[in-house]
Amino acid sequence: MTFVEFEDVSLAYQPGGPAAIENVSIKVEENSFVAVVGPSGCGKSTLMKLVSGLKPVSSGYVYVGNREVKGPLGIVGMAFQQANLLPWRTTLQNVMLPLEIVEPFRSRHRQQRKAHEAMARALLARVGLAGCEDKFPWELSGGMQQRASICRALIHKPRLLMLDEPFGALDAFTREELWCLMRDLWQNEPFTAILVTHDLREAVFLADRVIVMSPRPGRVIDDRTIDLPRPRPLEICYTETFAGHVHALRGQIGHARQH
Ligand SMILES: Nc1ncnc2c1ncn2[C@@H]1O[C@H](COP(=O)(O)OP(=O)(O)OP(=O)(O)O)[C@@H](O)[C@H]1O
Prior knowledge:
By secondary structure, this protein is α/β, with parallel strands linked by helices. The protein is 36% helix and 24% strand.
């Protein structure tokens, strides 16, 4: 079943101005993991803003769960390159934030505070942050902050997770650790995921499909199925099939940049 659909979508940030993306049509199956790659400025983050309802389309339609997106959506979890944790809240309080804001959790939050806290503690433990609940963000490393930010994006069990370069600011080892964490979280309790990334290895490792965008105005120039078996161990990154996907994607983006 299709869960997210772009139907011939264009967006110009200024009315009548140049299009950031043009005639984009994409279908994302429920509980699948889709990555979007392309040269800088091709409109990857713009796609995120359109799906989450932070920006209206100039033309075309965006549907999430069979409903046209017309404003911010509560069923979306988001994680960005910067962890963006609130510095005055502890890690636990940061993770619990969506439960205070998003329905149906919000209206039950007072009565179910203890249960909500237990959910947050359990999720923090799953990502290896047990013992960090009472620490403030500045007491955590970059990788730990990003783990907490992923917990915050998932705590309200969103049906759709939008990831905008969430591992981009991390060192190579931490990044690979978090790929595995994301793989396990998704595999354990599937949700629909859309990942924007510059890292082609990350895209191939995590995704079922990789969508390639052209330089501005962003258009879909390829939609590549990644048929690597799951569960995928990190060692899969050193196989010929994996390298073949990465090379093909790199070639397409290089070609698109030149033309
Ligand atoms: N708020 C805005 N107002 C005007 N133009 C914008 C705005 N946000 C983005 N753009 C333009 O729209 C185009 C697409 O931007 P977007 O951020 O979606 O690209 P991107 O592929 O995510 O880029 P990067 O890979 O560098 O993060 C770019 O040319 C950018 O300059």
